[in-house]
Amino acid sequence: xxxxxxxxxxxxxxxxxxxxxxxxxxxxxxxxxxxxxxxxxxxxxxxxxxxxxxxxxxxxxxxxxxxxxxxxxxxxxxxxxxxxxxxxxxxxxxxxxxxxxxxxxxxxxxxxxxxxxxxxxxxxxxxxxxxxxxxxxxxxxxxxxxxxxxxxxxxxxxxxxxxxxxxxxxxxxxxxxxxxxxxxxxxxxxxxxxxxxxxxxxxxxxxxxxxxxxxxxxxxxxxxxxxxxxxxxxxxxxxxxxxxxxxxxxxxxxxxxxxxxxxxxxxxxxxxxxxxxxxxxxxxxxxxxxxxxxxxxxxxxxxxxxxxxxxxxxxxxxxxxxxxxxxxxxxxxxxxxxx
Amino acid sequence: xxxxxxxxxxxxxxxxxxxxxxxxxxxxxxxxxxxxxxxxxxxxxxxxxxxxxxxxxxxxxxxxxxxxxxxxxxxxxxxxxxxxxxxxxxxxxxxxxxxxxxxxxxxxxxxxxxxxxxxxxxxxxxxxxxxxxxxxxxxxxxxxxxxxxxxxxxxxxxxxxxxxxxxxxxxxxxxxxxxxxxxxxxxxxxxxxxxxxxxxxxxxxxxxxxxxxxxxxxxxxxxxxxxxxxxxxxxxxxxxxxxxxxxxxxxxxxxxxxxxxxxxxxxxxxxxxxxxxxxxxxxxxxxxxxxxxxxxxxxxxxxxxxxxxxxxxxxxxxxxxxxxxxxxxxxxxxxxxxx
Lengths: 339, 339
Fold this sequence. Notes:
2 copies of one chain form a homodimer. The first copy, chain A, folds into 2 domains: 32-79 and 161-339, 3-Layer(aba) Sandwich (Rossmann fold); 81-156, no CATH class. The first copy, chain A, has 13 helices and 8 strands. Chain A has helices spanning 2-30, 39-52, 83-95, 108-113, 116-121, 123-135, 140-153, 169-180, 193-204, 243-252, 267-274, 307-314, 322-325, and strands at 66-69, 138-139, 184-192, 211-223, 226-237, 258-261, 281-286, 318-321. In chain A, strand 3 (184-192), helix 9 and strand 4 form a beta-alpha-beta unit. Chains A, B: This is phosphoserine phosphatase. Chains A, B: Pathway: Amino-acid biosynthesis; L-serine biosynthesis; L-serine from 3-phospho-D-glycerate: step 3/3. Chains A, B: Keywords: Amino-acid biosynthesis, Hydrolase, Magnesium, Metal-binding, Serine biosynthesis, Signal.
């Protein structure tokens, strides 16, 4: 009996191997498939290999594998304007019938009349008024429903795609790759936290409790047993620049070992990440692709990358050349658009 | 060959079974071993069974199994005074040589001279001054080192045990049991967040990023490339009462399905948890054990339980009778002290 079993066993073994081999090959290709073989992909793989190899001098236990990502311009596009600002503009138009006073009140009047010059002249103060009117004095639940409705129907002015499709395919792959290697992935963004939570889990695989952002003060309300959290028109935390390491310290309570950003607003988060002990990784998405996405850096009003680019170069941080290193920018590009 | 193998196989199988059976029996007892067969343990097991049984109408996906716990009086003792306040008192004594002005300045003078009456008369304002002086105007790193040093050496005035051993064995078991059933366990406490993070991971198995508490404003500092987070003497968030659902909404971004507290400061967190859809659990630790721990509720200055006890009774929340339901209070009790 043994004699007849052995060849069958061997055949089965060879057969299984034949079935498994293509899967193994495919698995190897599936790591960061939209990154070409350039320096960024190599640096990412070398870093992840080093911190996840037990016995390596650079090994980092799973619990400490914290990775933080900026959102606007790092995980999705931010042109011609931060998408959340476009949401606020659309919300003003939607809410205008309930606010007849806006017809005579700036900056709402300018926005409703399409008077771009006056709107631009209202500056940051005007923008904060628009954000306040569309983001606060309502419950978190009501706000989230508004954001959800907008994200489900609004289209990006250039691509005509929903905003949640204007995410970077290579960064989705990087998030997956890190999580598959035991990393906990966080968003740490200047965007408002409840807005991002509406899509972050579905689009990025990042759950609400791993989304950190700008926050408004809030108030617990109990109206005859009807409980809610009211969003107040008062900033509690501005999660930009130095606000990023501050919120990382306050909310995560430990230092990330990997950080990715794209603008000067991410500089302190990258510095804070790199200042810890042991092997660390800092990356910048450099918007170099005027064809498939946008090309901008030192002179841009949105997502200016100037000081952080200098520091990245002087400290050998990874600067991703989008045009050269990404074979695909958006998930809706069906085939790689560059070799 | 087969003929001789079969009985051996069967014997092996029976042998393995004999070896495994006691382990199975033990495993069954290992769930919440310090809880007797009272109503609280039954309610906990019924709830966890319902929300984790696939196909059950009460099933909750793993991602939504968020459990929140108060700390003082819920996970560890809080008598004769919140342990963090005792830490602040000890820190004033330790820091006094560097602060000669405290000899003449209240409430520090009273504290250093052991003048309890004057100290008590300084009230909440005095306490905040003491907490401010010992918790702020230093980096998070420096503060954590202070807290760590104190926790490693200080002893509780009655038990003579380190404070980190004054934790409730049945609650440690509950945390383990919930995590084994896919729950993410959080602390949501009036205590200051950096203080709790020093011991929460080791003692409770709760990582820094799942510790939520009262926070001070902070400031990112860059002194010639030396980076730090400076703690400012200004409250950013008071995580007590309505502050608890506010921080849950802001930091976790979804509603817990289980909450445990012990005082009126936890009422809004319990209400917020119970007001969601689907099956939910609210529990209160009732300090009924003057022998092994402390007995206090409606009249206590520390951890007053009055309104929340009424609401728990009217809404059939679980109220744990510590004296009757816990066979063991602290881990250092080697044998169950009650049957």
